[in-house]
């Protein structure tokens, strides 16, 4: 049994992980699973108490409610006792057809897109408290816009966001994709070209398409990197072909396929020289590493709340400069022809208000820790590199992303290692998922043993070492050479 320190709620606590030498300690594993189930059971029972309060308005509990309350309390006490002792029968815990999601409590999760969107405990508390529909709107006052609400401190959060990205103004948006859309719909005209990377995310394509534009991809070099020179060449190509400059350049700082770093600084410079607005896609950066919009020279910075800011989906941020704000954040001019109604300062691209409930509150609640964690980015990359160095000891394994790594998301190739085993294993590629899961690790694409992606973001050093050991352990079980 190995004891590792796990960061929970800011404090380090001890968590017992199964020893890799002796294989899984099933008894302890199931005790832990039971305790996790008991935790959910207790949380759900507390929600039932909350409901009694709601139902008992205005007079307080009637006799039946008092009885329900007492029963719930008794139940909670017994759940807590089971939880403490790791005893009892697991409850069903199903909510309708939904099973409680316990992956993050039960496993080390190396899923490529889930790692940095895992909620902080603060965010989890915010969502139970602000889960009701329009919960942000309790104190919404004139001029009635989400980003102007002072309580909870949503206006302040918007200012903090802009400052965090070193931009002039920021808005929250339902996902990075909706940020792309707000920008393309306000500056791309029908038939306009938009420069994107040949590693661009599909949502960038769709945002351009929705605005009636046409994507023009900058080729990647042999190392899968998009450079300033190739961007300039593409701009020239577009100019020659269409007689017009592109309307927008949108480039991912780190792409989703390799998480390679692209020359956003150089590309922003090229954009400036041509007078083309530059959108920095920070889906994989904003919230995990420092991002300075002014230093980059970006006209727009876009981040994803659920990918990199420990927030509920769909959430994200769109930040811009005072120069571009009047355009992307333009307010409604529409007047009803019968009623003469106007809607003041509602922003057209944001449909007035965007994230109106727990989604936004989760962003706000996670934000202090998110800000803090960007300072630890280098250590996150070091952990990832450590993991990969161990992984590369397994003969036939490769890293397809750039090396040395600058990100915690990595594309690996196990065609020459785990896939060789899969070829003759009765479970085929699933043998690998099975073996990982048996050792408490999930998140790889189930069944994939050729090229796949993983993300170690947020693992502690002990968890990182443990995960590396798991890979080596599986390799040696199947007789793969380890150097
Ligand atoms: C995940 C991702 C997106 C989409 O982000 P959402 O917040 O889910 O809309 C866009 N671009 C890149 C590069 C991504 O990795």
How would you sum up this structure, described in words?
This protein is α/β, with parallel strands linked by helices and 483 residues long. The chain has three domains: 2-106, no CATH class; 129-374, Type I PLP-dependent aspartate aminotransferase-like (Major domain) (Aspartate Aminotransferase, domain 2, 3-Layer(aba) Sandwich), CATH 3.40.640; 377-477, Aspartate Aminotransferase, domain 1 (Alpha-Beta Complex). It is built from 17 helices and 14 strands. It has helices spanning 26-55, 63-85, 103-106, 121-129, 154-164, 176-187, 202-210, 228-242, 264-274, 293-296, 305-308, 325-328, 358-373, 377-392, 418-424, 430-438, 461-477; strands spanning 2-8, 11-17, 108-109, 169-173, 193-197, 214-218, 248-252, 278-281, 300-304, 316-320, 398-399, 409-413, 441-442, 451-455. The strands form four sheets. Strands 4-10-9-8-7-5-6 form a seven-stranded mixed sheet, with helices on both faces. Strands 11-12-14 form a three-stranded antiparallel sheet, covered by helices on one side. It has a two-stranded antiparallel sheet with strand order 1-2. α9 (264-274) links the parallel β7 (248-252) and β8. α1 (26-55) packs antiparallel against α2 (63-85), α4 (121-129) runs antiparallel to α13 and α8 (228-242) packs parallel to α9 (264-274). The site of pyridoxal-5'-phosphate has 15 residues, from α6 and α11.
């Amino acid at each position: 049994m190995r004891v590792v320190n796990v960061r929970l709620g800011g404090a380090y606590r001890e968590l017992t992980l199964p020893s890799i030498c002796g294989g899984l300690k099933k008894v302890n594993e199931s005790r832990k699973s039971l305790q996790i189930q008991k935790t959910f059971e207790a949380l759900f029972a507390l929600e039932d108490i909350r409901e009694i309060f709601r139902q008992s308005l205005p007079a307080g509990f009637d006799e039946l409610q008092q009885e329900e309350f007492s029963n719930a309390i008794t139940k909670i006490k017994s759940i807590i006792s089971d939880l403490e002792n790791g005893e009892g029968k697991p409850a069903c815990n199903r909510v309708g057809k939904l099973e409680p999601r316990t992956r993050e409590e039960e496993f080390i999760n190396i899923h490529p897109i889930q790692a940095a969107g895992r909620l902080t405990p603060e965010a989890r508390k915010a969502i139970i408290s602000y889960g009701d529909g329009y919960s942000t709107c309790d104190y919404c006052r004139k001029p009635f816009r989400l980003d102007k609400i002072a309580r909870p401190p949503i206006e302040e959060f918007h200012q903090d966001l802009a400052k965090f990205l070193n931009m002039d103004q920021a808005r929250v948006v339902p996902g990075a994709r909706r940020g792309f859309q707000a920008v393309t719909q306000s500056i791309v005209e029908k038939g306009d070209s938009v420069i994107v990377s040949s590693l661009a995310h599909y949502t960038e394509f769709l945002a351009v398409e929705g605005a009636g534009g046409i994507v023009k991809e900058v080729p990647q070099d042999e190392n899968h990197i998009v450079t300033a020179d190739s961007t300039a060449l593409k701009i020239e190509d577009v100019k020659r072909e269409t007689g017009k400059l592109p309307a927008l350049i949108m480039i991912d700082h780190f792409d989703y396929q390799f998480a390679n770093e692209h020359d956003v600084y150089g590309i922003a410079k090229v954009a400036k020289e041509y007078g083309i607005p530059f959108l920095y896609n920070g889906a994989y950066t904003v919230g995990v590493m420092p991002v300075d919009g002014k230093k980059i020279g970006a006209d727009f910075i876009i981040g994803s709340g659920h990918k990199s800011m420990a927030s509920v989906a769909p959430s994200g941020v769109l930040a811009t400069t005072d120069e571009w704000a009047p355009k992307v954040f333009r307010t409604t001019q529409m007047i009803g022809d019968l009623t003469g109604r106007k809607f003041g300062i509602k922003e057209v691209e944001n449909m007035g208000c965007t994230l109106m409930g727990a989604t936004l509150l989760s962003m706000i609640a996670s934000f202090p820790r998110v800000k803090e964690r960007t300072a630890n980015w280098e250590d996150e990359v070091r952990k990832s590199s450590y993991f990969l160095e161990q992984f590369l000891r397994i003969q036939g394994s490769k890293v397809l992303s750039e090396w040395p790594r600058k990100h915690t998301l990595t594309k690996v190739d196990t065609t020459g290692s785990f896939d060789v085993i899969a070829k003759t294993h009765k479970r085929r590629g699933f043998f690998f998922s099975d073996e990982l899961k048996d050792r408490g690790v999930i998140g790889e694409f189930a069944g994939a043993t050729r090229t796949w992606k993983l993300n170690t973001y947020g693992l502690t050093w002990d968890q990182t070492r443990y995960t590396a050991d798991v890979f080596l352990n599986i390799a040696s079980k199947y007789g793969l050479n380890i150097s």
